[in-house]
């Protein structure tokens, strides 16, 4: 049979050894052409590495690279170095002499193969050498370890020669069963891709030495019974087993492999879109034909059998392009087809807009010219694509739109394919979730997120000069715009801006995130009505570069499996606003405070711009303005913190008057509040700004902010019942110089604390109950005995009433101490001090009458009150609206001389009103105040 005819062996009709020899010769001819093309694309030193690889695995010699020991597995099946290889080895090591081993030595290296883009139209000077080292099955662990060490040393040596090489140990027996001894290529997403990897190997591999693939000798139409056909070839000695290497076949590819391959290409496309989208489209074209899929490697084999050996037509990238092109043409998907062609053109990287160097055009140049002629491209398209290294924002944004559409479509296609084929393997869960979140972080838009426009499209977006302008938008609202070049105000209307933004910091963050402004960029400023200066702008840009380095580090999968958490937070205070300017009216005292002459300057915080880099690599901008920027920003900052784990790197900057002290003060507030949040259990944090108060309830993931306009509102809030112990942490300047700061600083759990202060004939009594809720009352002071004894009696009876509702042993534990303190001040403006006081000792002769109150629910939401004075009952059922007058008349009748000094409730039962649940002492004190006020008013009127 002529070597130029199509060969179609039929097993049942017998196999011709001459045909098998002819087929092997055809594959080797294609292999020789590809190997030569691979060498043409390499430097001289890289060529030397490639030429020496078979020899270095064939012998163990101490003066050659990769030597580990004399026992390292060596010997490539059937290999004998040619004179050129030996000459190269002697140039490397002059004293090296090759000695052929006599007899039949063991040759455990069964085959060496290059895999990937080498020898294809996609090869460039940066292409790696991915080498499959196929070794004899059953090597001992020690032998495999030494062989792996040899590979590692060869990688180091190759790197020193300017060649990036990776070696992968392959046990053919284990490989055909789907097991792997190592990651076979960098294209490994953790999901099994055995058959698609084998498909890529068979259509791209370049044989360097050893046994040739048995797969070559099995016709593509026999792939469905590959095992039987291969067994016949071996059993009947049509081929000798020591001449071939069997890595398996492509008879049936599980659906999960298309999904896994697609997921991984999507993953890689986020950073290197052109190469990965090309492969992603091939996976899509494969999956679209399921279950009637024909792999490209089978087409390659059929072409060789048909003696169609033109290297250009067999080029793996060209063949893949043809398959994808046909798929997209059938779908009339012209936009994606245009993107596919751009991907291939940029991957080939042979600029057709420039005259090639050298006397003649390279084969790649000629091939690309034929392709682009079929595409009907013109010179304008060549110039545009060849200038990709010079692409700036406008062109990158346009290209990003096409790439994002493709990424989004690819993800949806894979999701639908998984659903339609009911793929239930592990890639449906974890890997799909991780990829979805990675895509979300890279391309999804959301409020405040700074968009990353350069998805591996262009190497440098930095502009030489820019103009930053504040103006007004169509709705007459203030906005900022960024223009190319250095423009004066009169020329602005002739140009369209690169980017608009309502706020300045998101616009600067966008420039920083995408590298539009670098250290050499000149930015002209037209600040409009803002107070932004060139000096402040320079400081802002410098701070962005230092505080938020770009690009962010690659986000690990583990981070994407958890919600996004803040990693770095930059707070910029009063950008473009001067709180000390005439436009911001401040009193002399406030001005003194801001300059450190008084207490705290936080009231000078007029705006906060927050930039947050989170654990997903997203950059988020948020602006806080009046009425309470500091409190609102603090609330959101604490809300974003995880319940456990590392805290973000927080930096606060202000480039205005008093900026350093103001930034330091704000940072202190944030760190103190964060420390309070990190304490066990729930707590509260109180921040005071001027005469306004802000209470933050601190529970991880559930921060509540309550604004309190004055001291009265604060006292009312502190007096609310909450039935749990929640420590209150004061900002270090909150309530400064007040007795309330001293009292709250004494708060303890599970006890009743009574504080009193006597001043100008009046006594102010404050109680912190068992949960540190606060009750306060002011009254005329006679003496400590009359001031404190009624209150002590009341607290004791309320506490006793509560404990009687518990089992005896629990009631003993539930009993609470009642502690008394007196607030003293040695002189005006001196700090208050606390003096611990003993509880008042009640004498039998003290003229106090027991007044007990029982409050129960009534009709129409009204409470029914029953009072007992010396066990005499007075009920609203009997007296109605005259209840308190009747009680007052009774009390006056018991007193000598009709004295009208105040009376006090000594016992109060609210169980009927508040239900059977445990009541809190502050609730009793509040009702006590209301009842006493009503009775004492009646006493004065009687």
UniProtKB/TrEMBL annotation:
Q: InterPro entries recorded for this chain?
A: Adenylate_cyclase_1 (IPR000274), Adenylate_cyclase_1_N (IPR024685)
Which biological process, per GO, is one annotated for this protein? cAMP biosynthetic process
Q: Which residues form a coiled coil?
A: none
Q: Which residues form the signal peptide?
A: none
Transmembrane spans: none
Domain Adenylate cyclase class-I N-terminal: start-end pairs: 20-216
What molecular functions are annotated in GO for this chain?
adenylate cyclase activity
Report the protein name in the record: Class I adenylate cyclase
């Amino acid at each position: 049979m002529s070597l130029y005819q199509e060969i179609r062996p039929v097993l049942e009709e017998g196999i011709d050894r001459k045909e098998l020899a002819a087929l092997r010769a055809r594959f080797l001819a294609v292999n020789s052409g590809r190997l030569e093309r691979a060498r043409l694309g390499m430097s001289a030193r890289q060529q030397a590495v490639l030429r020496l690889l078979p020899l270095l695995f064939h012998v163990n010699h101490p003066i050659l690279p990769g030597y580990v020991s004399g026992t390292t597995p060596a010997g490539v099946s059937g290999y004998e170095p040619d004179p050129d290889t030996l000459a190269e080895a002697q140039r490397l090591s002059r004293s090296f002499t090759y000695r052929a081993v006599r007899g039949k030595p063991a040759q455990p290296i069964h085959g060496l193969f290059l895999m990937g883009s080498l020898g294809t139209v996609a090869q460039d000077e940066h292409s790696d050498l991915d080498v499959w080292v196929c070794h004899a099955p059953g090597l001992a662990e020690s032998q495999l370890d030494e062989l792996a060490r040899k590979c590692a040393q060869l990688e180091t040596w190759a790197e020193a020669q300017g060649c990036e090489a990776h070696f992968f140990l392959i046990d053919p027996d284990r490989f055909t069963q789907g097991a792997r001894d190592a990651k076979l290529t960098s294209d490994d997403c953790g999901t099994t891709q055995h058959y698609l990897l084998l498909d890529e190997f068979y259509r791209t591999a370049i044989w360097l030495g050893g046994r040739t693939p048995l797969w070559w000798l099995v016709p593509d139409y026999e792939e469905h019974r590959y095992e039987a056909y291969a067994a016949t070839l071996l059993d009947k000695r049509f081929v000798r087993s020591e001449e071939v290497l069997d890595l398996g076949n492509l008879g049936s590819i599980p659906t999960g492999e298309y999904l896994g391959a697609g997921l991984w290409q999507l993953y890689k496309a986020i950073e290197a879109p052109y190469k990965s989208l090309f492969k992603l489209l091939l996976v899509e074209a494969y999956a679209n034909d399921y279950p009637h899929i024909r792999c490209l490697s089978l087409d390659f084999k059929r072409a060789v059998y048909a003696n169609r050996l033109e290297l250009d037509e067999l080029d793996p990238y060209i063949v893949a392009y043809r398959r994808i092109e046909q798929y997209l043409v059938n779908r009339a998907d012209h936009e994606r087809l245009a993107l596919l062609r751009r991907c291939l053109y940029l991957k080939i990287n042979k600029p057709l807009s420039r005259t090639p160097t050298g006397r003649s055009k390279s084969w790649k140049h000629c091939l690309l010219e034929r392709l682009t002629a079929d595409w009907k491209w013109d010179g304008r398209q060549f110039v545009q694509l060849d200038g990709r290294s010079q692409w700036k924002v406008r062109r990158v944004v346009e290209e990003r739109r096409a790439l994002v559409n493709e990424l989004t479509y690819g993800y949806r296609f894979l999701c639908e394919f998984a659903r339609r084929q009911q793929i239930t393997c592990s890639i449906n869960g974890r890997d799909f979730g991780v990829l979805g979140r990675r895509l979300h972080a890279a391309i999804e838009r959301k409020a405040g997120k700074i968009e990353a426009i350069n998805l591996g499209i262009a190497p440098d977006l930095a502009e030489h000069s820019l103009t930053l302008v504040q103006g007004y938008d169509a709705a007459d609202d203030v906005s900022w715009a960024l223009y190319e070049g250095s423009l004066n105000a009169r020329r602005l209307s002739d140009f369209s801006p690169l980017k608009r933004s309502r706020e300045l910091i998101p616009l600067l963050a966008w420039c920083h995130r995408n590298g539009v402004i670098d250290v050499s960029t000149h930015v002209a400023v037209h600040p409009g009505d803002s107070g932004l200066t060139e000096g402040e702008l320079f400081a802002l840009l410098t701070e962005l570069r230092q505080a938020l380095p770009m690009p962010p580090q690659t986000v690990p999968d583990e981070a994407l499996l958890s919600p996004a958490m803040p990693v770095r937070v930059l707070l910029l205070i009063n950008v473009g606003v001067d709180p000390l300017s005439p436009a911001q009216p401040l009193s002399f005292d406030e001005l003194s405070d801001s300059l450190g002459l008084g207490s705290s300057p936080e009231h000078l915080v007029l705006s906060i711009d927050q930039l947050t880099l989170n654990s997903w690599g997203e950059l988020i901008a948020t602006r806080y303005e009046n009425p309470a920027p500091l409190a609102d920003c603090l609330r959101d900052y604490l809300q974003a913190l995880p319940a456990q784990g590392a805290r973000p790197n927080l930096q606060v900057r202000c480039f205005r008057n008093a900026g350093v002290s103001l930034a330091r003060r704000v940072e202190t507030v944030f760190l103190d509040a964060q420390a309070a949040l990190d304490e066990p259990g729930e707590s509260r944090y109180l921040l005071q700004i001027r005469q306004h108060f802000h209470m933050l309830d601190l529970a991880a993931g559930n921060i509540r902010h309550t604004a309190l306009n004055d001291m009265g509102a604060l006292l009312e809030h502190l007096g609310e019942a909450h039935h749990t112990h929640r420590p209150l942490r004061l900002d270090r300047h909150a309530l400064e110089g007040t007795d309330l700061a001293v009292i709250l600083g004494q708060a303890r759990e599970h006890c009743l604390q009574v504080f009193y202060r006597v001043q100008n004939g009046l006594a102010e009594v404050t109680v912190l109950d068992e949960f540190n809720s606060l009750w306060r009352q002011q009254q005329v002071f006679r003496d400590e005995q009359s001031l404190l004894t009624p209150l002590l009696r009341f607290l004791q009876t309320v506490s006793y009433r509560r404990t009687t509702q518990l089992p005896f042993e629990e009631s003993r534990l539930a009993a609470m101490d009642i502690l008394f303190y007196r607030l003293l001040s040695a002189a005006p403006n001196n700090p208050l001090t606390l003096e611990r006081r003993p509880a008042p000792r009640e004498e039998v002769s003290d003229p106090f009458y027991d007044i007990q109150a029982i409050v129960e629910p009534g009709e129409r939401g009204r409470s029914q009150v029953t009072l007992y004075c010396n066990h005499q009952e007075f009920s609203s059922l009997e007296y109605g609206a005259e209840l308190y007058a009747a009680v007052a008349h009774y009390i006056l009748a018991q007193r000598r001389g009709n004295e009208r000094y105040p009376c006090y409730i000594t016992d109060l039962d609210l169980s009927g009103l508040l239900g059977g649940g445990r009541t809190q002492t502050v609730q009793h004190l509040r009702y006590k105040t209301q009842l006493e006020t009503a009775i004492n008013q009646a006493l004065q009127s009687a």
